[in-house]
Amino acid sequence: MPNIGPMEIIVVLIIALVVFGPKRLPELGKSLGKGIQEFKGTISGDHTSSDEQDAIEPAPVVVTPAAAAPKTPVATTPEQHA
Questions:
Q1: How far is CA 38 from CA 29, 44, 75, in A?
Q2: At 14, is the secondary structure helix, strand, or coil?
Q3: Per-residue pLDDT tens digits for 36-64
Q4: What is the C-alpha separation between 37 and 22, in angstroms, rounded?
């Protein structure tokens, strides 16, 4: 398999710049770097990402009183509305 040299890397970067544009290319680089960092952290066992901390924290539970909820559903007919 041939080695990838600097000329091939430059060609790929120019093609990426043409396809994605100058505004979107930094965002793609940032997300690619973040993905590689998370992958390396998963492989090595490091779990220091703030996104994972947010996902681990439980959401607050809302409890409604039993008296407020109806025990049986109430069916209405068109004659009741007239």
A1: 14, 10, 53
A2: helix
A3: 999 998 988 875 555 555 555 666 666 66
A4: 24
